[in-house]
């Protein structure tokens, strides 16, 4: 028996590979298919099933392409409807993988088709349960993503309470809980950075599993403080119910090299967006193509693309570090941005050699930032962290302007002012600064090292104030 958790940090997502006696199954696969096919090939196994815990909102899953390539059966829980062939499982239904059995446990609440899968070994033991977005480590799935005209988030939360109490909490305390997400995902409010735990420990430490909690208390707890989900979530659910462009075609088109002159012509077209995906250090040092947004591939790339690029069909050309073009297109596609048209061949070196103009973001250190604040010589300092981060501690005299709502609030920005932006470490502030600059704000400066360095710079900070809502 082999059970592997496959963690993808950018999405804080966990897929699972299960192998026994020449047969394999994948639970909640990402869009790209080759890693799973190669794992099964290495084990001499045939992928028999692709199990989905629900229709995901935060990434596009790869069940259709994977089933086409392997002949595997796609399995969802009750209530699932899609445009492709699938097996709609029943509560308690069992599926054989070699000497193992996976039993479907219908656990609605996050969504109505949401299901968990209990692994039963050949001796009848139950070492693992794969809980999808029903139960996370330290949290539970948010109950507001499948709201319909006849189904409120309170209704969903009530279903989730029953699922946890009747299906999950009745399992042995020593069973290992394997969820679909960890800290950093927007599918819950306060997930742990741990990626698995025993159910017994979760009963002790997870607020949602408190033994004496009433259904009314649970509903209030899990529905309080929910922020609106990222705008791309609805698009990803729709894509996960449909048949999308084959991933191999997306990767082939997206990794088309484009020479500097052609790239310039394309970058000046109103319907094409340029995204610079290089490291923040290289981006800041070398500058970029005028009008380009910065979203570095080494950060939370896919979620920020999904949060900031409003049109899922947006035409995108990109700048990447040499050799990482395939990776970049893969990560665009994970959240459904399939309309990547190619990359700048030769990168910024080729751009400069062609004699084209360069945009560059200004930069100062945290100490310089603190000194300018004390001198009163800073016109418009902004903290682009989340509201909860800002409320917990921030620099006195600095306004909060969260990156995740930058488009909604951009009318507040005066293009004639000089802005100084910081986040926690310098990644989000560079994204924000690039969007400022692309939208006509010429005097924008990034604070290197962000709040992490500012705390040691001598700047005056607020005392800790507990946020009034949980994000």
UniProtKB/TrEMBL annotation:
Keyword Hydrolase set for record: yes
GO-annotated molecular function: hydrolase activity; metal ion binding; sulfur dioxygenase activity
InterPro entries noted in UniProt: Metallo-B-lactamas (IPR001279), Mito_Persulfide_Diox (IPR051682), POD-like_MBL-fold (IPR044528), Rhodanese-like_dom (IPR001763), Rhodanese-like_dom_sf (IPR036873), RibonucZ/Hydroxyglut_hydro (IPR036866)
Presence of keyword Metal-binding: yes
Rhodanese domain segment(s): 268-360, 382-463
Signal peptide: none
Pfam families: Lactamase_B, Rhodanese
Protein name, as recorded: MBL fold metallo-hydrolase
Transmembrane segments annotated in the record for this chain: none
Keywords noted in UniProt: Hydrolase, Metal-binding
GO biological process: glutathione metabolic process; hydrogen sulfide metabolic process
